[in-house]
């Protein structure tokens, strides 16, 4: 019987230990918890990045009473997906509430900082909160920790220090796994009593009475029983409605963001959360969260043999999304996504259909029906509720259940193909029945019905039957084209391979050949380990001391402020870029913003016609070759080129209004050319320009082998968690600009020229960036100019923060690169000649050109007087490409190392020996020898060869690469050092941009070392254009050293001024001497400068070598990086923990570039991979299982600043070792497939699991027992 639903005007909940009341007039049903936390409460430690639950930056913790266990539990949740109105009665913790400088830090915050687990710090609050929930829940095994961060993306650190930090808090931690780690009890800070008391107090005084909130355009209903829910539905009339539980579907399909008339919160309906045995079945409520379902399945499956298959269900659900999503997302929600979107490869649908579960549906009339999942997705669900799922019991001796989810990376993405198999055998060992279910084949496909029928009564473990089944599958698996997902042929072949893998997995051992036995198992990833080997010199401390970054605790406690965290100013406005939804080479004819301007809260729209000065954000006074438009002036250069900016009173208003801006275009007369190869194929020589040619000075004559090939790599999205953003505040002098830029000088000049105002009217300030990686060298100029235009026109403060999708669509990425080569060699592998043509894809215009870096690092390690190199650039119909970490050098090192590996394969030589035969007389050969010994290369190669001979469907590979990275000098960089007479403390302001690479930490260490004072005496201020005018871009790895050079210069001046007072009072203290200086009117501020013209500023080489070992599952294409050994040349490290972090982070960024990160365009030039769910940087379980990094010891750089070398970018170049190791593994598989197959296949973009699978060259006719 239903209860009367009463109207209320407010909801209440706790954040930290404080109760908040929200009135209905102040919010809407679409207001998120994240928006309320950040925008209303100004608790900006919680970040907002992707707004789809895919990055983890928004993670907060829900503290609640679990009615099933009668325990208080902590759940990490995505605040960007949680509707605020769902929070009634909740207690929520944000990063600010668990620890801070006043009350002490939580052990999780302290530990992450201590282990140097932060760099830019943008991901740190989310990481901390995810771990906080785990820690407070007591689930502290290292396996749990490693498995719980699939939804937390970190671009900077490479995850290793984060995982090490959090594993140190586990009960099963050991030195063998982790090495040295802090004592938990030394770090732990107990909770405040008031928090404990507040958290266990029920916030919702209404108890379990249903209520509703009436808003202007919608109604929100909260129900506590199924009868109340059905009553609410029955009285809804023809209104549109939405049942709200986890709301995670909104992160997958934008259609679920659409407004409806009625929202019904069903999170507290007990009938939808049942968990009980009913006769021979088990019944689970449809509104059970995926996390709870996993717990139930593991517990019930372990204790009840007839439900032992539940454990496999739990393992499969563990592969769905990530922990915060699973904590709120429900079984019903996942099934409804499949119901509404048949092309969605729902894992819940797949496993429920495979095991024969039944779904109970109830209508508003109380009538129930039981349906299979396949029947359910065709059911009209209007005014019906998915109530429960009923699971059958099985005699597991006669039943085999296996399921798979083959993903592009280890976690947090949907399947390329998912599959479920359930075989029921009779007493004779033949099949009574077979259930074969696949996902992501086509929208109408569920069962392989023909194959299921064929197998009935057959002996599954007979090669003839196996081939019949595979032939049947080949006929009925009709895969559709669904970009950006993998190709239809691959998905079909993968689906067939999974059937074969299942047969291998369940077949009796005596039915299988020894070489095939390992093919049935999936790759098992052990708990990861790491070694960080470096030296320090205690006599120089704090210089060379291994310390965390000085901002680490500010970052792990949410105190660190970014541009988007800046408080709103009075009369604050916001802006959003309007992008051209038109193919390249269209012509923009008109823009009509009138409908958008009619929306309440929208203030203005500006386009190129409103710019008073230059419509250009790349001033030619700097190193730019061509002007680049802020807003499109006619010809559309690339899909999603900005055409204007819409300004309004809130970001929420702009999200709605931006779609109302209408633009018209004349269509293009030609199709877009989106890659170098397309330009070459079209013979568009007008789009190719030769920049430089290197002619050989000799050519060898002992030519016994000729090797030809190609090398192609493509875009990489920088994936800085802080999107391109800017805040501009007009003032009486002009304007203050707070951009997320790596180059203050560009912003100042570009804005001044756009507005036709003097440079001195503009002050640029940058505290830190939430990641940059080169994307914010020049590209932020577009966003900052647009923001400044709106602020100047309106004389009001304006903030612009691009959405994740807009950032991917509109902003340039790493330069794609192609190379065609021919190499002549003798029998000893010595190169007699090398001819190659290199092409860099610059995008829509010839502006930023990385040819110098490509050439230097291509030539760096090897004798090259026989090389003929043609350096060319290409113009394509994509956004202007730009600098990305190790620009040019990645292409240079990658291509030459791939060429050397290819040559070695063709000659049948050990690649190391071939390289040695061609090395220049530099230290690189000694690095290789040291690595061979340290990493035990020869023994491991022999072991791998044996393994590959003994296994057909698992293969291992090992590769070794080297690098000679030439570091140039740039400038100027200026530094101001000020000493305060009150206590002798010091401030530094410099022209570099701190973005996680540790400039501030190194600067402080150098300053403290020079002055002989404690590091705590030194603080580093934000960078700004007044104290550090005209400074060059922070990029190219040079900035940390350059700033430290400037610090030394400034300190030396001050030391000279202080010395007479030290001489007068040799027994005095630092504060005594500073006081004496002040009293004698000594200037206690000094400026230092770094530039190529300063004394002792030199270019120098950086050496590095790396070995990588992988294991590959030939039947899925998946791989695990088993081990990486990396020896890096850093000179004498000024700050070893910082440098180790740079090495690890750079390498993992490169690992992603070469394995998982793929930009996919449609035929019109629109990027399809513009979300966290389909653009995939590495996650925590994609990094090497055994990651060993050594900074070469006793290795001072005689021309470096304090004998150091740069570290930020060079190690990324070494990541080419990963696809080469994969190729070495696949060489064995390719020969197993046919002895005539070539062992080598070329680098062509990332070596994704699709490319691994396809290039294994296996065919289903090879699938035998």
From TrEMBL:
CDD domains: fer2. GO terms for molecular function: 2 iron, 2 sulfur cluster binding; FAD binding; indole-3-acetaldehyde oxidase activity; iron ion binding. Residues 213-396 form the FAD-binding PCMH-type domain. The active site is at 1209 (proton acceptor). Its cofactor is Mo-molybdopterin; [2Fe-2S] cluster; FAD. Its main location: other. One of its GO terms (cellular component) is peroxisome. Mo-molybdopterin binds at residues 742, 773, 885, 1036. It is found in: Peroxisome. [2Fe-2S] cluster 1 binds at residues 50, 55, 58, 80. Signal peptide: none annotated. PROSITE patterns: 2FE2S_FER_1, FAD_PCMH. It comes from the Eukaryota. Binds 1 Mo-molybdopterin (Mo-MPT) cofactor per subunit. Binds 2 [2Fe-2S] clusters. The keyword Flavoprotein applies. FAD binds at residues 343, 386, 405. It holds the Pfam family CO_deh_flav_C. Keywords: 2Fe-2S, FAD, Flavoprotein, Iron, Iron-sulfur, Metal-binding, Molybdenum, NAD, Oxidoreductase, Peroxisome. It catalyses: indole-3-acetaldehyde + O2 + H2O = (indol-3-yl)acetate + H2O2 + H(+). [2Fe-2S] cluster 2 binds at residues 120, 123, 154, 156. Belongs to the xanthine dehydrogenase family. Homodimer. This is Indole-3-acetaldehyde oxidase.
């Amino acid at each position: 019987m239903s209860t009367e639903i009463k109207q209320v005007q407010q909801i209440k909940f706790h954040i930290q230990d404080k109760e908040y009341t929200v009135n209905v007039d102040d919010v809407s049903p679409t207001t998120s918890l994240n928006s309320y936390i950040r925008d209303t409460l100004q608790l900006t430690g919680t970040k907002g990045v992707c707004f789809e639950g895919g990055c983890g930056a928004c993670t907060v913790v829900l503290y609640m009473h679990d009615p099933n266990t009668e325990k208080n539990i902590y759940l990490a949740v995505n605040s960007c997906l949680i509707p605020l109105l769902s929070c009634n009665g909740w207690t929520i913790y944000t990063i600010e509430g668990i620890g801070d400088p006043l009350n002490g830090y939580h052990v999780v915050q302290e530990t992450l900082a201590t282990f140097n687990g932060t760099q830019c710090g943008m991901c740190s609050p989310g990481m901390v909160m995810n771990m906080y929930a785990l820690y407070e829940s007591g689930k502290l095994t290292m396996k749990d920790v490693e498995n719980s961060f699939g939804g937390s993306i970190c671009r900077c650190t490479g995850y290793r220090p984060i995982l090490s930090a959090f594993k140190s808090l586990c009960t099963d931690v050991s030195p063998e796994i982790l090495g040295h780690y802090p004592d938990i009890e030394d770090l732990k800070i107990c909770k405040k009593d008031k928090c404990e008391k507040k958290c266990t107090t029920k916030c919702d005084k209404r108890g379990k009475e249903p209520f509703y909130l009436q808003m202007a355009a919608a109604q929100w209903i909260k129900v506590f029983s199924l009868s109340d829910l059905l009553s609410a539905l029955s009285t809804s009339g023809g209104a549109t409605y939405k049942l709200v539980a986890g709301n995670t579907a909104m992160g997958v399909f934008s259609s679920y963001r659409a407004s409806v008339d009625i929202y019904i919160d069903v999170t507290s309906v007990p009938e939808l959360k049942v968990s009980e045995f009913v006769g021979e079945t088990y019944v689970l409520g449809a509104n059970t969260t995926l996390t709870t379902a996993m717990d139930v399945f593991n517990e019930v499956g372990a204790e009840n043999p007839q439900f032992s298959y539940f454990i496999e269900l739990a393992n499969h659900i563990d592969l769905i999304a990530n922990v915060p999503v699973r904590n709120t997302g429900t079984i019903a929600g996942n099934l409804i996504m499949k119901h509404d979107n048949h092309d969605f490869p729902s894992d819940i649908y797949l496993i429920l259909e495979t095991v024969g579960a039944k779904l109970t549906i109830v209508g508003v009339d109380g009538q129930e029906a039981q349906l299979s999942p396949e029947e359910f997705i065709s059911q009209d669900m209007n005014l019906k509720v998915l109530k429960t799922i009923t699971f059958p019991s099985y005699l597991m001796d006669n039943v085999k259940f296996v399921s798979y989810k083959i993903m592009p990376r280890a976690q947090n993405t949907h399947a390329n193909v998912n599959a479920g198999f359930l075989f029921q055998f009779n007493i004779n060992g033949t099949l009574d029945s077979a259930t074969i279910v696949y996902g992501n084949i086509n929208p109408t496909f569920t069962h392989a019905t023909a194959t299921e029928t064929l197998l009935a009564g057959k002996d599954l473990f007979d090669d003839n039957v196996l081939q019949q089944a595979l032939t049947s599958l080949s006929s009925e698996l009709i895969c559709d084209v669904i970009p950006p997902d993998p190709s239809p042929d691959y998905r079909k072949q993968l689906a067939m391979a999974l059937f074969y893998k299942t047969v291998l997995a369940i077949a009796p051992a005596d039915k299988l050949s020894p070489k095939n036995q390992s093919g049935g198992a999936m790759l098992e990833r052990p708990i990861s380990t790491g070694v960080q080997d470096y030296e320090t010199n205690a006599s120089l401390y704090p210089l060379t001391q291994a310390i965390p970054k000085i901002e680490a605790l500010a970052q792990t406690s949410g105190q660190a402020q970014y541009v988007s965290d800046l408080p709103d100013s009075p009369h604050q406005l916001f802006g959003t870029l309007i992008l051209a939804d038109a193919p390249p080479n269209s012509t923009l004819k008109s823009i009509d913003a009138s409908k958008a301007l009619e929306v309440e809260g929208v203030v203005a729209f500006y386009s190129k016609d409103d710019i008073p000065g230059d419509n250009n954000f790349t001033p030619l006074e700097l190193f730019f070759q061509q002007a680049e438009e802020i807003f499109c002036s006619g010809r559309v250069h690339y899909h999603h080129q900005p055409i204007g900016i819409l300004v309004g009173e809130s970001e929420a208003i702009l999200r709605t209004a931006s779609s109302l801006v209408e633009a018209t275009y004349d269509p293009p007369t030609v199709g877009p050319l989106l890659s170098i190869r397309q330009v070459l194929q079209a013979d568009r020589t007008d789009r190719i320009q030769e920049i430089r040619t290197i002619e050989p000075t000799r050519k060898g004559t002992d030519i016994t082998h000729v090797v030809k090939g190609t090398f192609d790599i493509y875009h990489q999205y920088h994936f800085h968690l802080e999107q391109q953003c800017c805040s501009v505040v007009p003032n009486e002098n002009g304007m203050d600009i707070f951009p997320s830029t790596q180059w203050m000088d560009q912003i100042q000049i570009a804005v001044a020229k756009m507005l036709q105002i003097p440079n001195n009217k503009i002050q640029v300030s940058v505290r830190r960036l939430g990641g940059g990686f080169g994307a914010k060298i020049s590209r932020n100029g577009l966003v900052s100019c647009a923001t400044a235009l709106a602020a100047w026109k309106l004389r009001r403060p304006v903030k612009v923060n691009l959405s994740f999708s807009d950032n991917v669509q509109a902003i340039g990425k790493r330069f794609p690169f192609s190379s065609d080569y021919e190499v002549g060699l003798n029998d000893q592998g010595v190169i007699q000649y090398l001819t190659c043509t290199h092409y860099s894809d610059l995008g829509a215009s010839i502006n930023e050109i990385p040819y110098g870096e490509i050439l230097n690092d291509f030539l760096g390690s090897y004798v090259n007087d026989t090389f003929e190199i043609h350096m060319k650039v290409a113009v394509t119909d994509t956004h202007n490409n730009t600098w990305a970490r190790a620009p040019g050098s990645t292409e240079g090192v990658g291509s030459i190392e791939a060429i050397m590996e290819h040559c070695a394969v063709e000659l049948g030589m050990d690649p190391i020996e071939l390289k040695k035969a061609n090395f220049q007389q530099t230290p690189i050969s000694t690095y290789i020898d040291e690595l061979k010994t340290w990493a035990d290369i020869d023994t491991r190669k022999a072991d791998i060869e044996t393994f590959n001979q003994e296994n057909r469907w698992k293969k291992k590979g090992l590769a070794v690469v080297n690098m000679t990275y030439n570091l140039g000098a740039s400038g100027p960089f200026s530094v101001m050092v000020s000493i305060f007479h009150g206590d002798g403390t010091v401030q530094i302001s410099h022209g570099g941009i701190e973005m996680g690479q540790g400039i501030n930490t190194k600067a402080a260490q150098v300053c403290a070392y020079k002055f002989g004072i404690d590091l705590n005496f030194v603080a580093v201020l934000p960078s700004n254009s007044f104290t550090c005018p005209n400074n060059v871009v922070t990029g190219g790895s040079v900035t940390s050293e350059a700033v430290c050079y400037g610090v030394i210069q400034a300190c030396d001046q001050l030391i000279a001024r202080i010395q007479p007072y030290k001489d007068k009072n040799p027994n005095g203290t630092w504060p005594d001497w500073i006081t004496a200086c002040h009293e004698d009117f000594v200037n206690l501020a000094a400026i230092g400068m770094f530039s190529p013209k300063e004394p002792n500023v030199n270019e120098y080489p950086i050496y590095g070598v790396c070995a990588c070992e992988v294991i590959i599952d030939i039947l899925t294409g998946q791989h695990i990086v088993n081990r990486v050994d990396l020896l890096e040349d850093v000179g004498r490290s000024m700050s070893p923990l910082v440098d180790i972090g740079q090495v690890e982070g750079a390498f993992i960024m490169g690992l992603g570039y070469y394995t998982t990160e793929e930009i996919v365009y449609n035929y019109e030039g629109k990027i399809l991979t513009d979300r966290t769910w389909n653009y995939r940087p590495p996650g925590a379980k994609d990094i090497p299982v055994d990651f060993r990094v050594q900074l070469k010891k006793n290795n001072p750089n005689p021309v470096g600043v304090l004998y150091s070398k740069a570290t930020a970018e060079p190690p990324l170049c070494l990541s080419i070792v990963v696809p080469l190791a994969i190729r070495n593994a696949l060489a064995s598989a390719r020969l197993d497939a046919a002895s005539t197959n070539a062992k080598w296949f070329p680098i062509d973009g990332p070596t994704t699991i699709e490319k691994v699978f396809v290039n294994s060259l296996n065919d289903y006719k090879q699938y035998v027992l």
